[in-house]
Structures are given as structure tokens and as C-alpha cells.
Amino acid sequence: MSTVKRSVITIGLLLANFTSYSSSAEEMIRQNSGFTLNEATISSIRQAVLDNKVSCEAIVSSYLSRISSFDHAGMLPINAIIATNPKALDRAREIDRSPTEKNLPLACTPLIVKDNIDVKGMPTTAGSKSMRNNLPADNATQVTRLEKAGAIVLAKSNLAEFAWTPDYSNSSLGGLTRNPYDPLRTTGGSSGGTAAAVAANFGVAGLGTDTGASIRGPSALQNLVGLRPTLGASSRDGVIPIWLTRDTLGPIARSVSDAALLYQATYGYDPKDASTQAARTAPSFDSAAVLRRGALNGMRVGVMRQVIDAKNADPEVMQRFQQAEDDLRTLGAVVVEVNLPDFKKLTDIPWPNRMEYDLNTYLQAEGADRSVKSFAEVVKSGQYLGELSQFLKAQVGVPNPEDNPAERNDEKNTSALRAAIVGAMNRENLSVLIYPTWTQPPRLLTKMTGDGGNDNPVIAQAGLPAITVPMGNTRGNLPTGLQIAGRPFSEAVLFSAAYDYEQSTHHRTAPLNLPAAAIAK
User: Fold this and answer.
1) H-assigned helices in 85-241
2) How far apart are CA 152 and CA 18, in angstroms?
3) Residues 6+ apart with CB under 8 A from 106
4) Is the dihedral of CA 141, 146, 152, 157 positive or negative?
5) Cα separation, 225 vs 252, whole angstroms
6) Residue 391 gets which letter from DSSP?
7) How far apart are CA 484 and CA 469, in angstroms?
8) Which residues belong to the active site?
9) Structure letter (DSSP) for residue 165
10) pLDDT in tens, 85-129
11) Looking at the DSSP assignment, which residues form a beta bridge with residue 249?
12) Are 375 and 354 in contact (CB under 8 A)?
């Protein structure tokens, strides 16, 4: 089938998805103040509420209506949301009543939170039927920090069950999430539900987790900005883990500025997460200071071509990457090649094998109050996708990390890889490294075998920070992402480079055929 014919069919299916949009919701949206949800930013929402141009209640109500009308509609639904927050409107009304609340830095920011992150009053399921009754007693630390800054948890999003696969987001509880740019294609994983919801304007931004690729992959495939922070820069408390030696939480947003605002609210030491001890002495993060034009002028940028599988790379993606290199040079960057000696040996690191230990630690944090008691209970239940069975069963009975020589080897190998990358940057006096986030466009859901072009794991293995930013579309409207990586705790540099590139290129485009909903007062 030709690309043009497939595109016509895809657009028809998208339109079919939205025919169920209710007349009452549409009438409410038409009687509006002129403020639109589509592509709204954190700052624009906050200012509109602060100026009393629109109420926070109306904003939250309209987002909830949009989710209800679009997410599960049509023959090929996006299917990004597992559950909406029954307390979201109550929190919006609190903000409307209080001038102090309206003035908070994230006032009335409706967030989509990946459903492996604890939100008090809602189950934390990791997309698994085996965890559907897992009710946390409190928020994850990052959720608490975001709420204190004025954000509202609007909904919990679908994910790859137990955040396992980077290729797609499918779960026994939430089903399959589809890419709003083309419902025949994957969102990537595992934070695919959060990314699809943010891309489709179901919320203004979101929170995901990244163990190997899971924030950056879905963000790149859906024209978003996604940050994997330095391991230890922000808390993982209250998160269903895979492997705590790799797991991170980070923002997913439609703009670099929105991602920076969320990161500023969540960054820093948390006594509930020992890994954040290093953040106590790391530089502070100020979003206003890092979001500046001209940051790339004179910056030395290293092209990390060794992570790219040239034989598997899509020509159009590589054209976008070459254009990105050219754009960086135009902005004054000095772009050079960087190579790591013994790259294959350094990156040949087995993934950890400690999920049982880490999940049990999460479950035991609240003692007997958890309805799910142990990892072994989860595995025994069989209430998860069949494709996960082999992976989960292989994790049972693995020695605790302190008794496992493989864990000590993992620490050694990780340190060696990190030192090699930072050493190469030091030798060339580089500020950042760049490469395509994925070397393939979003894959057809019927063709998920083989390598999908995931370039993300190396930085995750090294525990280093990386941000992805839209790099342009292929096949007409299929997004690609430019990944910008750096030294430990160099997030300020990454955001500066990403912001300058974003503001100079403006590659972000919204999905076709999604209505630009306006908000009533």
C-alpha cells in the first residue's frame, strides 16, 4: 500500500475516533473566553487563571471532557488513560478560591501521571491486573512536590505493563495505547500513555519513568520534550520499580520551558531515596536562568555516532539528524565527532536482575496496609500479559543485591562506562553529546519485530542525564527526536541547549484532526 493511501486511511480512522464528541461538550467549548486547550503551556494557563480570564475549574473540566470524548472513542482509540482523578475538580476549585494558590509557580497545571507512580486516593497498578487494588497511603515524593507548587493530577496513564518494554505501551489492565499522530503506529514505551495524552492535549504535561528509554522514546515518537535526569537528581520514592540502579522519574511536556518548570519543582534531595544524597551538594536548578536564547553560540557539541545503528537507520530520520547538526552550526555551535575506545565492550552491560528485591522494598514501605504483599504473589497470580510471564518468572528467587556478585559487576561496569563518556567529553572540551533519540519513525503495530531504532539505553546504563526535543517529522507527520546528553548533574546545560534549538527550529506540531478545544469561563 502506498504511503499516500495509508495516510488517507489513517486520517479517516482518526476522524472516526472523534465523531463521538458530545454536542453538549462542544457547545460548552464554543461559549468560550477565547482561551484554547490545544498547545496551552503551563505559564499561559497560570496567567489566565491569575488574571481571572478563565477559572481553573473550567480548565480542568474541559480537559476531563476532552479525555472522556476522545480517548476511548472510535475504531482505533488512543487509549492513553487508565483512570481520571475524582478529586481533580475539587483541587481546581480550591485554587480558584485562593489568590495565594493562583500565584503558585504551577498553579492549575493539569498533569498526566504514569500509573506506576503513587497518587494518594488512586490505585497504582503499573498497568497490571495483579496490582489493580494496590492503594498507596501517600503520594510519591515528586507528586507531592508538584502539588505543592500548584499542579493538579488530572489522570493516571497507561504504560507498558510493569514498565517493561521500550517499544510499545500495552498492559493487561489498560490495553494498547496508540500514537495520536497515526493510530496504526506505536507510542513507544513504557511511558507511552503519558506521552500520547500530552501529545493529544489531554493534559498540559506529564510525569513518566525511564529505566532504559521510557521517557525519551515515547517523547521523541510523539513530538514532545522528555527528560531523563541524572540518577540521584530527583526522588524515586513511591514508584513501582524495575531496577533501582537504573530507574528515574522525569517530565514529559510539549515544550522545553514546561519540562524545565516541572523539573525545577521535583529536583533535589529526598530522605526517602538514598540515591539523591548527591543532589544535596549539586548546583541548584533555576528554570528561568537556563531558558535563554544564544546558549548554543560557541558551545562545543559532540556527535555520538557510535550509538547509531547505521544499517538499521531510516534515511529520513538521518536526514533530520543531519539538518539538526547543520542547525546547531548555524546557531554558533562547534559540532565535532566523539568516539569512545572499546565502545562495544563498555556498553555490553547486562541489565540488572533485581526486580523482586526492589518491588518488595516498594510494597513493604507501607507495611501490612498494601493489598499486594510481595513480588512472588504478583507472579503467582498470573494476572498480567502472557508475554511478560518469562521475564517475571526469571526474576523470582534472584539473590538480594548485597549477596549477588552480578550486582557488584553491574556497579563496576556502569562506573566504567560513565567515566569513559565523561572522559571523552573532557578530552574534547564538550558541553553536550547529540544523536537521534530513535533512528526509526514510530513503527506499525503489526510490524514490531526486530530493532525499532532505540538509541536510548547507553546513557541510561551510565546513569547520565539526557533530554529529547522534536527534530522534525518524517513520512509527512511522523515525529522524530534529537537527544542531547551530558555529564552528571548537567541538566541546566541540557535545557539551555534544547531551548535554544527548539526556539530556533519550532519543529513541534500537534496531531492532525484533533479539535482545538476552547474553554468556557
Assistant:
1) 88-97, 99-102, 141-148, 192-199, 216-220
2) 26
3) 42, 46, 146, 149, 150, 151, 261, 262, 265
4) negative
5) 6
6) H
7) 8
8) 114, 190, 214
9) -
10) 999 999 999 999 999 999 999 999 999 999 999 999 999 999 999
11) 209
12) no
